[in-house]
Amino acid sequence: MNDTTLTVGLPAGSLADPSRGGNLIDLLKHAGFAAKGYDRGGPSSFPITTFLVGWDGRPQEFGSQLGLGEIDVAIAGDDWIRERVLEFKYEYNTDIAPKKVLSLQRGEVRIVIIDNTGGSTATCDEWLTDLLSKNALVTMVSEMPYLALDWFQAKARKLGFEDSHSGFSVQKFKTPPRIDAGIVIYETWGKTEAKVRNGSVHLGLEITQTGSAIRNYGLSEVDEIMTSETGIWVNPRLKEDPEKYELARMFLLNLYGSIYAENKVLLLFNAKKEAVSEITDYLRANELFADEPTMNEGVNFTEFSVQMDTSDKELPLAKVRYELATHGATHIETVPLDSCIPGLDVIDF
User: β-strands 329-336, 99-115: how paired?
Assistant: First the structure.
């Protein structure tokens, strides 16, 4: 019996809460990977698909675990994976390379630089040039200090301050600076805006969705570093283990099917023989099939099945059902889809 398993990093927090955000519980269930214990804080397990091993953790940590091979696959945001990659680079001179293989189309945020500029019209480069010219030691605060460091050093090089501001120190808020020149980045556990507004530091890096909290504090976004979303990340060395690699491909394919099916339904309806041509013309005119419609022909009736996106504002589901009826369709049934897999080629790993 094959006892190969795939260890999956499952993020604690809002994604694990069935009443919030991305509802990862249902996504896994629809993919065929019903989880037990995950929505209660763990320990998580997969009682049906026992070849999956749940590892409950924080997305902040999964980048390191993937890079070191402690877990095989993880559900995490682009930002936190990038943060860990940069930490290994700057602090340990080590390269790790987790690979993103699937977007979950959830958890979208922006990573921005904020300052108490009071609505200044200066560009980011102008503002930063002035700041570096006046301060040998710049202070910054962030939950993601290495993303902040990477941004700062790239800007310093571009603006000609590489020699004077190349030094850096990442430390807890607000411990005494360990350097005299360069940048000190205080790692914090939230309320970045308050620290910037109250003048505790020169600038900050913040994670935001709408920017409302930043505006409420009277702060300005002076630059955007990246956008981030939740996705599936893997340890690229999985390819060196054929059995784990196949398990990973199966996991990804079924999750893709679950995501692809979101907001999609299957319309099933009948039509008398004399109405088939008219209905087929309607389906073609509205691009409701690809190469040809799916049809099961009987003696007196033909059964059609059509997949539809319920979020399509140009072609609302209610309108289509009505217009199909006017063209002779009967017994129109709408079936929600839990999964829809176009084919194996949707997985690139």
Answer: unpaired
